[in-house]
Task: structure prediction
Amino acid sequence: MANTAVVPSGKLHDMTGPIAENGKEILVSIKNIDITFGKGDNAVRAVQNASFDIYKGETFSLVGESGSGKTTIGRAVIRVNPLAAGEIDYKGVKISGKIPHSLDRDVIRNVQMVFQDPAASLNERATVDYIISEGLYNFHLYENEADRVQKVENMINAVGLLPEHLTRYPHEFSGGQRQRIGIARAMVMEPELVVADEPISALDVSIRAQVLNLMKKFQREKGLTYLFIAHDLSVVRFISDRIGVIYKGRIVEVASSEELFNFPLHPYTHSLISAIPIPDPKLEKGKVLYTYDPSIHDYSTDKPDFVCIGHDHWIYGNKKEIEEYKAIREKGEPLKPITIADPETAAEANKHRSETIDAEAEKQFLEAPVHDTGSLWYSILSFFLPILGIIGALLFKGHRHYRNYHACMKGAIAGFAVIIAILLIFALLLVLSIV
Result:
């Protein structure tokens, strides 16, 4: 482990990271990290034993469904989320946990983040000029006021906005323009690593390409490294050098972009790729979706591990699965995760899948407790005592007594309706008597 105390203040930018076996410089190394929220019985392991490296100058994309832990890892890299186990190294220097104040400032200076929601990530009470300049102020990255103004104007021009926009406030801009301001705020710090947390998901489709092209432009000009967090694999394929797939907090597959799309070996990766929309409506109608079922893995005795099967392709599985993955990969025949069938056949298959899900939901409903009879007496009692009926309904629902719940709700609603009707009649009679 690197000794963080020997890193001079401000020198992290000038250091060179360790060299991997493939000859590339490792900028960031994620080593067996766990991230937990809460304590005791309420603790939730958002990330479990995650490991991967990010090479200098590449775009490493982290993909997975919502809630899989993508953003959690990204926020851990910028030292927002603490680790429960493992460590994160930057150029071989440990930056997770308790580190010297000078190193902490170096990390902030060299690692910036572009957030998913451009509206929520910008200070609505600050002008664009101050938003972009805030990092310059905090780290005094300018010689004088004229130099600061010049840097801000150069950056606002670089992201496709105008100098006159600097005096305006974020609410005066569109979503795409606000995201450009967020990118300018990060890039003006001249970072080495940018964590981009779904930077285009909140934007219109027509604007997404512009923002992606802008980010690639900065990468070419400044040699930036991106940790790109996304769930849209159709976008990720064309902007990424390597891709990591995460499922419920665990990294299940890491490979280069073309390698992953040609050989999606893990079933979860297969399911993600099969869900990519096809632009042709006829082909999309004939596509057969592949649904990932975690129960296909038997890890009761043969424990899984995250290993490399060659071709710089890492995958999570037990010994039996790893041997199967290796055999498939060594054949060298690209897989076809997207299956196009006859539209009627595909519709029938998808309909059957939907009916299976509906049947499962109906089964859960019918497997209610024995005393969930929906007795008429519950409705009668709730009619005369509607407040108690509402309370009883909520208690029944909490214990999955759905029939009793509906009986109490019907009686309570009818009781409240009668009470309201009586009050209205009484009020009308009172008005008539006064008149």
